[in-house]
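hiii so um. not sure if this is the right channel but i have a protein structure encoded as tokens and i wanna go backwards to a sequence. like what aa goes where. can anyone help
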């Protein structure tokens, strides 16, 4: 029995002896912080980009949308770090990081209803902080998604030794 009790302390532990739920929560807080930085910078700077526009949408409006979605996903991830919200966080971070890097180095021009957002400088206030937060957010969101996925897979196939097992009936006729 003592051996079983000793093993029970290891059940549900991740690497380095930390419970996976704590790991997921810490990843969630860190990812939400990165999305929060992204949301703050985009909301704060959106008015600078209202003049960059097409007949459909301005870059300032895109910034406001990015800020709103990043903030929503950050809050949702803090409340319930599920695979859905990890995937949403990854999509938000990848799209934001991809856009800032693309428009930093490539003059794409107008893309359909999207304005030309080419901006070949890192000297603008908040741009590098936002890019760093988005890049780190990609890594953290991917880690959270993979951790949640691995944990879900591991629990799905595991039968706890503490769950009562029903014996299979060997009575004739069954």
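sure thing!! here u go:
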């Amino acid at each position: 029995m003592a051996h079983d009790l000793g093993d029970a302390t290891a059940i549900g532990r991740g690497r380095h002896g930390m419970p996976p739920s704590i790991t997921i929560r810490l990843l969630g807080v860190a990812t939400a912080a990165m999305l929060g930085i992204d949301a703050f910078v985009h909301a704060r700077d959106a008015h600078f980009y209202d003049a960059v526009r097409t007949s459909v949408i301005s870059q300032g409006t895109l910034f406001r949308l990015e800020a709103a979605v990043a903030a929503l996903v950050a809050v949702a991830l803090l409340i319930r770090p599920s695979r859905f919200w990890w995937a949403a966080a990854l999509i938000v971070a990848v799209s934001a990081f991809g856009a800032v890097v693309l428009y930093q180095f490539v003059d794409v021009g107008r893309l359909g209803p999207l304005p030309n957002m080419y901006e070949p400088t890192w000297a603008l206030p908040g741009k590098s902080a936002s890019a760093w937060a988005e890049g780190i957010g990609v890594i953290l969101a991917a880690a959270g998604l993979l951790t949640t996925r691995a944990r879900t897979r591991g629990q799905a196939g595991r039968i706890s030794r503490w769950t009562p097992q029903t014996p299979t009936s060997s009575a004739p006729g069954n």
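oh and The chain has one domain: 18-151.
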